[in-house]
Design brief:
The protein is of the alpha/beta class. The chain has three domains: 7-51, Orthogonal Bundle (434 Repressor (Amino-terminal Domain)); 65-161, Response regulator (Rossmann fold); 163-309, Rossmann fold, CATH 3.40.50.2300. It is 42% helix and 15% strand. It has helices spanning 7-14, 18-26, 33-45, 53-60, 81-96, 111-117, 133-140, 163-177, 200-204, 209-224, 242-253, 267-279, 297-301, 311-323; strands spanning 65-70, 100-104, 122-126, 145-148, 157-161, 182-186, 196-197, 234-236, 261-264, 289-291, 306-308, 331-334, 337-339. Strand 9 (261-264), helix 12 and strand 10 (289-291) form a beta-alpha-beta unit. Helix 1 (7-14) crosses helix 2 (18-26), helix 5 (81-96) packs parallel to helix 14 and helix 11 (242-253) packs across helix 12. The longest helix has 16 residues, at 81-96.
């Protein structure tokens, strides 16, 4: 650190002020050409690469970037199909405005500091739990904020979908087919790595808005059909990944009596549950119906009945809100659609 070359280093070498050296980079019209050339020659000699661009943007009030906060590790953004499509939408809108997209991690000891130090003009929060430290840190920055999915924040723009209605639609579809023995596979309710039966306490205190809404949609549809929510096996997975769906599917299919229909909170979990059914030699949909949510690209190939949400449109809309000149908060709830494919059918007879 003692050998670090700064503007002051160059100023001391030439016997001029630090402001004079700074002007050589930032306000060249303020210097005689000969003096500026001498400053730049000295900088090259000392191997000085120039002022910190981030610091320069902070001084000018321009950042030319927006920060994206989301609830998973950074690698998740490039591997989860739904996240990839949504991020494409956000990036398409922001890059048209000449803005960079800065991904800010949600985990790790330095995550809150990363939010505090991010050189950005605005934040987009994607699928964050209630009260997450990064949410608090972003709000403390008092920059424009757009929330995608969760958590809804009063006074800030929000883009979401009809999560509860979508869950009701798919549950009602299975009920109309004649199913009465259900199991539910859900994403995490808390950030504690838990995997196992979804208890009433964990459900009641869930910190994820989408999880709460989709579970409420299932519960309402089943209750309207006279099926007690407490009688239904419900299993929680700590991550939205197919391998977790396999684990949840095994647990659900071990219930006695075995369910004839599985309601999965996401397509990724549903696709994993299909594998668990195959391990037991169960046919889909002859022995077991499975339904997901999201309609990711792999859902069609898997023949999965699901709820389609407009992932790219949701991302583009959030991106346009981020760059909008009008700072007034907006709330947009996009519609969903039930997509019936070959993974659901009437329950087996007997």
């Amino acid at each position: 650190m003692g050998n670090r070359v700064t503007l002051q280093t160059i100023a001391d070498r030439l016997g001029v002020s630090r402001t004079t050296v700074s002007n050589a980079y930032n306000r060249p019209d303020q210097l005689a050409p000969e003096l500026r050339a001498r400053i730049l020659d000295t900088a090259r000699e000392l191997r000085y690469s120039g002022p910190d661009p981030a610091a320069r943007r902070l001084r000018s009030g321009r950042r030319d970037a927006v920060g994206l906060l989301f609830t998973e590790e950074l690698s998740y953004a490039f591997t989860d199909p739904a996240a990839v499509i949504l991020l494409q939408g956000i990036a398409a809108a922001t890059e048209r405005a000449g803005l960079a997209l800065l991904l800010v991690p949600a985990f790790g000891s330095g995550s809150r500091t990363a939010v505090q130090d991010a050189v950005v003009d605005a934040f987009c929060m994607y699928s964050m739990p209630d009260g997450h430290p990064n949410v608090v840190a972003a709000l403390e920055r008092r920059l424009p904020v757009v929330v995608v999915d969760e958590p809804p924040l009063p006074g800030h723009s929000y883009v979401g979908i009809e999560d509860r209605r979508g869950a009701r639609l798919v549950a009602e579809h299975l009920l109309e087919l004649g199913h009465r023995r259900f199991a539910v596979l859900t994403e995490r309710t808390h950030e504690d790595g838990y995997a196992g039966p979804l208890t009433a306490e964990r459900e009641a205190t869930a910190t994820y808005y989408i999880t709460r809404e989709r579970l409420a949609g299932y519960r309402e549809a089943l209750a309207a059909a006279g099926i007690a929510w407490e009688s239904i096996p419900r299993f929680e997975m700590p991550a939205n990944r197919p391998e977790r769906g396999v684990e949840g599917g095994r647990a659900a299919l071990a219930a006695d009596p075995r369910p004839t229909a599985l309601l999965a909170l996401t397509d990724q979990i549903a696709i994993g549950a299909r594998q668990a059914a195959a391990e037991l030699g169960l046919s889909i949909p002859g022995d077991l119906s499975i339904a997901g949510f999201d309609d990711i690209p792999g859902a069609a190939g898997a023949g999965l009945t699901t709820v389609r949400q407009p992932l790219r449109e949701k991302g583009e809309l959030a991106g346009r809100m981020l760059i909008a000149e009008d700072p007034a908060p907006r709330e947009v709830i996009l519609p969903v659609e039930l997509i019936v494919r070959g993974s659901t059918a009437p329950p087996p007879v007997g």
